[in-house]
Amino acid sequence: MKILDIPQSGKRGLNVSQDGQFGQISRATGRVANPRTPSQMTVRDNLSHVSAGWRALEEIQRAAWMAAAKDTMSNPRLNQSGSLSGFQLFTKINCALAQFGQDQVDAPPAQAQFPTLAPQNLVIANASGAITLKLTCPTSPGENTIVRGAKPLSQGRETCTDFRVLGMCPTPAQGSADITSLYTARYGVPPVGKKVYVQVNQFVDGWESLRRSFWAIVPASA
């Protein structure tokens, strides 16, 4: 239910306040689903190992993370943000590294300088029922461009926020990177008439750049 009130976010009693597409909304709390999918369990295992890594650091190492964290701001919430704690920065960097199969680090890496993002658009084709999804890439995405996707949605949807990591952007051929197998491995072949959203960003030394979203509607067979 949309409400007019002071800006709020989070749970209070039996209600949850959050920002919606057209303003602030309030809803009754519900039971959080916990299907314990392989991806969920991997994230939890990573967090457990990273937390243990923080406890195993020497105090001088923790102090270095605390100092670096003062220059790293949290994601804005209700137009407010603040600097991270040393533990939060350590977790942010090392959980990201673990997610993509890289070794944890004991010292805070310098803020990354990201090159220009290669993917510029999402193109979906349907040749006699064979549906392909490709990212237009005038330049090479390198080895550190992450592709996220969302399940197929109604083409009437104007926004999407529920994305999952599909993998790293493949090497392009003739200016296009084919992400069909990445997408269908997670969500299956998208039906004709549905809208497909993807997000791309870059990953360097545990840091991630801002995400860029693209969408396209699955066309009828040509």
Explained architecture:
- The protein is α+β, with helices and mostly antiparallel strands.
- The chain has three domains: 1-32, no CATH class; 38-99, no CATH class; 121-217, Immunoglobulins (Immunoglobulin-like), CATH 2.60.40.10.
- 23% of the residues lie in helices and 28% in strands.
- It has helices at residues 38-56, 59-69, 86-99, 180-187; strands at residues 10-12, 15-20, 23-28, 121-127, 130-136, 145-149, 153-154, 164-168, 176-178, 194-204, 207-208, 212-217.
- Strands 6, 7, 8, 10, 11 and 12 form a six-stranded antiparallel β-sheet that branches. It has a three-stranded antiparallel β-sheet with strand order 1-2-3, with no helix packed on it. A three-stranded antiparallel β-sheet has the order 4-5-9.
- Strand 2 (15-20) and strand 3 form a beta hairpin.
- The longest helix is centred in the first third of the chain and has 19 residues, at 38-56.
Mind sketching the topology for me?
Elements: E1 10-12, E2 15-20, E3 23-28, H1 38-56, H2 59-69, H3 86-99, E4 121-127, E5 130-136, E6 145-149, E7 153-154, E8 164-168, E9 176-178, H4 180-187, E10 194-204, E11 207-208, E12 212-217
Antiparallel strand pairs: 1-2, 2-3, 4-5, 5-9, 6-8, 6-10, 7-10, 10-11, 10-12
Helix pairs in contact: 1-3, 2-3
